[in-house]
Amino acid sequence: MRIDMRRDLTAALKNRDKTAAAALRSALAAVENAEASDADLPAAADSEHVAGGAVGVGAAEAERRVLSEGDVRAIVAREADERSVSAQEYERLGRADAAERLRAEAEVLGRYLGPDR
């Protein structure tokens, strides 16, 4: 799914499809954020250069999480759902233009989830 989304983001950028590009960028960023590790990095208590800085080559690097296809799918579904809920709120507040944009973004993301979403 992620490969398809990246490919489609490139196509959306080339075609100047702002709606698809915004939705895909946001969803891909959410996936990448979910991969970030929560691991505590070793800190140097006595570093004279940076307070709390890590010491040694590679000391500040941490393993990233590996997400399953189901994890990626759940993140994309959550992104689409958030847009739908926000669109309803914008509609309630009389912001039909913003609501329509969010609905269009949710529709773009929904294509990756299939009919059983």
UniProtKB/TrEMBL annotation:
Pfam families, sorted: YqeY (PF09424)
Gene3D superfamilies attached to this UniProt entry: Uncharacterised protein YqeY/AIM41 PF09424, N-terminal domain
InterPro entries noted in UniProt: YqeY/Aim41, YqeY/Aim41_N
Name of the protein in its database record: GatB/YqeY domain-containing protein
Source organism of this protein record: Streptomonospora halophila
